[in-house]
Specification:
The structure is a single chain. It contains 14 helices and 17 strands. The protein has helices at about 10, 15-25, 45-50, 75, 85-95, 105, 110-120, 180-190, 235-240, 260-280, 280-295, 340-355, 360-365, 370-385; strands at about 30, 65, 70, 95-100, 125-135, 145-155, 155-165, 190-200, 205, 210-215, 220-230, 310-315, 320-325, 330-335, 335-340, 355-360, 385-390. Strand 2 (about 65) and strand 3 (about 70) form a beta hairpin. It is globular.
C-alpha cells in the first residue's frame, strides 16, 4: 500500500497540500507540470492492452467510443451485447477516442492513485481511461459532477478551461450537464480562462462544475481521469429522513386538511422533532462514520495467503505537525497535542510521510523496534487522532 510515487503529496508536488486545500480545491483549475517519469511504471500501454483485451468485462456503460464530439451508439460496436473487436478497431482507425471506466480497479498503479486521492480528499473515486488520437475531439465543452484529477500518461493533449463554473452540480434535474442542451452549454461556458498543454507526468485539477474541453495534439494520447465525490450535504438530510420511521411521531397520520390549526400544530411538531434528530450526536456520528467508510472501504487489498486484508491505516497528514520540544517531541493533530518519545519520533515521521500504510509495512520498516512496541504505538497514534484503521 505504501508507495511514495502515488502519495498525494507527490501527486500535487511542488504544490503544498495546505496551499491546494486553501486556494484550489473547489475553487479554480490547477495545472501541475511534472517530469516525464513522475508516474513511470504505474500505468502504460501494456496495461491498456491487457485490460481492453479482457473483452468479457465490458458493457455499454464501461466501454465507450467518441468520434468527433459524438458518442457512438453501443449497438454499433456491441451488436451481440459484447465487444466486436473488428468494429472497434475500425472506429479507432477513424480517430475515435476509447473511454474505459473502472480503471480504479483494473491495475495496481491506477488503484494506488485512487487510494491516495480518496484518503486525501475524503470521497469515493472513479477512474476513466481516455485513449485519443490527433485532432479528433472527444466531448464538447462540458462540466463534471465531481472534482477531477487528470494524469497524462503518454502523448500530448490541449485543454481549454472556461470561465464559467456551475455551482455545486449533482445528479438532480437542472443540476447536471445532461440537463442542458448543446446550445445552452455553448452560451453558458464563457470565454477561455486558461489553455493547458498536458504532457507525460503532468497533472491537471479541474473543480466540479468548471467547463472544459480537450483535444489530442500528438499522434495518440493516453490519460487517466479520476473523479472524486464526497457525500453531499443533501445526503445527510436523506440519511436522517430514512431513519425517521423509527420515531412514532413520524408514523402518525396527518389531521384532516380542513382543520388548519391542527394541521399547523402537527407540522410545527414534526419540524421541531426533525431539528432534534438532525442536531443529535447519533445522526451526526453515523453520517461521519459513513463518510469515512465511503472513502476508505475499497482501499484495502488482499494479501493472500498470508493474512487476508491485514490491518490498514490512513494518516491524517493535513494539519498534523511533529516538532521537537526539549528532549522529546510533540505531535499536534487538530487541537490535540501528544508527547512523543525520541525513539518513537522516527516512526511517527514515517507515518506522516506514508499517508497510507499497513501494519505489515510498519513492522518491516522497523523490524528492530519489535512487534509489541509497534502495536503500542499504533494504539497511541489512533488515540491521538493521527491514524485511523480501516
Amino acid at each position: 500500500m505504501y508507495n511514495p510515487q502515488t502519495k498525494f503529496q507527490n501527486i500535487i508536488s511542488p504544490i503544498r497540500p495546505d496551499d491546494f486545500f486553501q486556494n484550489y480545491l473547489g475553487r479554480k483549475a490547477l495545472h501541475i507540470p511534472g517530469k516525464p517519469d513522475k508516474f513511470s511504471g504505474l500505468f502504460d500501454w501494456a496495461d491498456v492492452n491487457r485490460i481492453i483485451n479482457t473483452a468479457n468485462i465490458w458493457n455499454a456503460n464501461s466501454f465507450k467510443l467518441i468520434l468527433d464530439n459524438e458518442s457512438v451508439a453501443p449497438a454499433e460496436y456491441m451488436p451481440q451485447g459484447f465487444l466486436n473487436v473488428r468494429i472497434v478497431s475500425d472506429y479507432i482507425e477513424k480517430g475515435a477516442s476509447v473511454v474505459l471506466s473502472g480503471m480504479e480497479t483494473y491495475a495496481e498503479g491506477s488503484a494506488a492513485l485512487a487510494a491516495s486521492l480518496q484518503a486525501a480528499l475524503g470521497g469515493y473515486s472513479q477512474c476513466n481511461l481516455y485513449c485519443s488520437f490527433q485532432q479528433h475531439p472527444g466531448f464538447l465543452p462540458h462540466f463534471d459532477l465531481m472534482d477531477v484529477f487528470v494524469f497524462q500518461i503518454d502523448g500530448e493533449k490541449d485543454w481549454d478551461i472556461f470561465e464559467t463554473q456551475f455551482e455545486n452540480p449533482m445528479l438532480k434535474p437542472g443540476c447536471h450537464q445532461m440537463s442542458f442542451s448543446r446550445e445552452q452549454h455553448a452560451a453558458n461556458k464563457g470565454a477561455i480562462e486558461k489553455k493547458v498543454t498536458m504532457k507525460p507526468g503532468d497533472v491537471l485539477y479541474i473543480p466540479k462544475g468548471k467547463y472544459h474541453a480537450a483535444i489530442a495534439t500528438s499522434a495518440h494520447s493516453l490519460h487517466l481521469t479520476y473523479g472524486i465525490e464526497p457525500p453531499r450535504a443533501l445526503s445527510f438530510i436523506e440519511t436522517v429522513v430514512d431513519s425517521l420511521y423509527k420515531d412514532p411521531l413520524f408514523r402518525q397520520e396527518m389531521p384532516h386538511y380542513d382543520d388548519k390549526e391542527a394541521y399547523t400544530r402537527t407540522l410545527d411538531r414534526l419540524a421541531e422533532q426533525l431539528h432534534a434528530h438532525m442536531t443529535g450526536e447519533e445522526a451526526r456520528s453515523r453520517f461521519r462514520d459513513g463518510h469515512r467508510s465511503l472513502s476508505l472501504q475499497n482501499i484495502a487489498r488482499f494479501q493472500l495467503p498470508d493474512e487476508g486484508i491485514g490491518r490498514n491505516f490512513r494518516v491524517r497528514t493535513h494539519g498534523s505537525l511533529l516538532k521537537r520540544r526539549g528532549k522529546n517531541w510533540q505531535l499536534k493533530v487538530a487541537d490535540r497535542e501528544t508527547e512523543i518519545s525520541p525513539e518513537n519520533a522516527t516512526l511517527v515521521e514515517w507515518m506522516l510521510d506514508s499517508e497510507l500504510f499497513t501494519r505489515a509495512e510498519l513492522l518491516n520498516a522497523f523490524a528492530t523496534y519489535g512487534t509489541n512496541n509497534c502495536d503500542t504505538l499504533l494504539k497511541l497514534m489512533g488515540e491521538a487522532g493521527l491514524i485511523s484503521e480501516f
